[in-house]
Design brief:
heterodimer; A: mainly alpha; elongated; B: 45% helix
Amino acid sequence: MLRLLAKVLKALASEQRPAQLALAFALGMVAGITPLATAHNLLVLLLVLCLRVNLSIFLVGLGLFSALGLALAPLFHHLGLALLTAPALHPFWTGLYNTVVGRLEGVNNTVVAGSLVVALIALVPVHLATIVLVRRYRDHLLAWVQKSRLAQLLKASKLWRAYQAVARVRGGGS
Amino acid sequence: MSWIRWPGLVAFAVVVALLIAGVKLVAPWAIEHTIESAGSEAAGALMEVADVDISLLPLGIEVEGITVADADAPMANAVEIGRLAATVEVAPLLWRKVVVDELTGEAIRFNTPRERSGALPGATAPETGGGGEVGGAAGPAALPKLPTAKEILAREHLDTLDAAAKLKAEVAATRARWEERIATLPDADKLAAYRSRLEAVRGRAKQDPIGTAAEAKRLADEIRADAAQIRTARADLTADLQRLKEQAAAVQAAPAKDAARLKAKYAPSAGGLGNATRTLLGPGVADPIDKVLTWYRRLAPYLGGGAGAKEEEAAKPTPFGGRNIALPDREPLPDLLVRTAHLSLELDFGKLTGEIHDLTTDPPRLGRPTTFAFAGDHLKGAEAARISGILDHLDPTRPRDSAQVALEGLVLAGCTLGAGAMPVAVAAGRAGGEGHLTIAGKQLHGGGDAKLDGLKLTTEGSGEGSGIAARALSGVDHLALRVEIDGTLDDPAIRLSSDLDRLLGDAVGREARAQAAKLESRLKSAIGEQVKGPIGEATGGLGGLGDLDAGLGDRLKGLTDLSGEAGRAALPGGSKRVPGVKLPGKLKIPGF
């Protein structure tokens, strides 16, 4: 946990673009809020691994939204049920269900459909909001955090030093 | 800073490769386990698979060394398949449908021996019920060993004894009744009393002729009334005697009837030789039909149709919670479909190759029936063989399956027909014919005709009829066989008929008739001996009744004579009476 926190603080303090960090968080949100063993999460994994996004931020997002997704599962079920049984949307769902992607995804499941719709709707707003938050953090909070006792403690720990050493060998980045 | 992280792409490829490797490693084991457990459940006996391999491009599965034990004979395999290879369509797998585009089955053999029992743990003894009963009755061919007359009489009840006992009781009752009745009739004492009165009248005739004539007339009237009473009784007794004599005659004839009845029951007859066809040819015809029906019964549930499968699928619990909404398939596919199966069947008489099309667990969803056709030419044991048919379960409530079979030049040499007391070895011969079978719901309808030519038959049995049958069979060089199948799947009835019955019937019928006559003669003698006593006792009682009749005759004669004397005494001067003549003084004596 400490290690993850250190990584997050480092990422926020790094030169990585806010958009990269925000994308990692948004992808974590998608993977977390929807059932994990679904096909779209394989795509999310591919994007996380192939795009230069921060893995620590992704994991934080995944953890946070998994907990949220678990709590909101009944809500997603009702939303999914309403969407899947809406007569106006029946052709859309039937069409999607009869595609390879639809079958792999299991879109006829109420929780999958409800959570996926919420995740897709929230993807861009979460991404944009996270960009804004990262920028504001860097502008207003970064200096204060770096001087804080928590940051000092983390920097003083053996773990932090080891991490810094590895990061230097890798050339920094994530 | 670039957005692309190439090592990540490699990592993703590694993850995917690991997944594929996992599938490649685990899938064969899982498939093998699934095949063995599901197959064993369906077959009711152990199903084993030697090896399973899967290929990814194209997606396929190869299974080797499949053995399915025979539930009725666990030390034999009902089916053994050397190799099964299937190419599976990938896209339908995403729909959770297994669509086998092409299935190849090689070295498919039936009834092969096993080294260890294929019975399932806890399986009960095989049930042979539901199998075809040939002709509806079992029976030995030709002439069975005849029981002796003594053995027959020991186990049979004779009607003669009943009739004799009944007659005896009837005679005794009749006698008792008549003895009682005769006791009430005028007897010798009364006759003596009449005579005394007549003598007294005669003694007074000279003193009082008018008065004594009137008294003599009264006496004559009384005597005649008594005589009439006895006459009526005698007529009744005669009628009873006649009835009892008729019964006695029936009792005397009863032994012959008993003998005829028992002869009909125990003696061989040419009519009973209808057994020959089903005893000699029944097993060879009924056993394969029975096997086919047994397998059909086992596999029928899988040929049915998945009405409601969509709803069941929707009702299944899901790993994500929530529930699955039933959405329509644009291109409905059954859960399991084998589009084409190329199979090679290694039967006793040679190898048949053929195809099965549209084999599925859900024909209504596919919209086409399953069809199959197998053929083989120039086989080691036949010139040609054809099997084809349709499994039509498009309407699950009204399934209708049919098959046709045609065989040419089936080599019969080396076969043994029948069993038990009269097995018949076929030294040479060939068979050919056609047959069909339709199973509509559970109702069976089928039949076929076969011709057996160039036959050379020898009997091996030692039964009483073997010698006769051997002589008859040695002259048989061709046969025509007809098979009719009906009844239900659970209770099939297989009827066989052939000219073997007639051929054997002619030969054995003569012998049967001779044996029947001999048996009847022995039975008559034995029955006569057994019923002699009871019949004698029954008819002997009739003599007693005759004595009663004679006694009544004596009484009647005495009374008649006395009434004549009394009548004469009533006439003046004791002149002879003239019946119905008007007497002087307008005196008329009726009957005189």
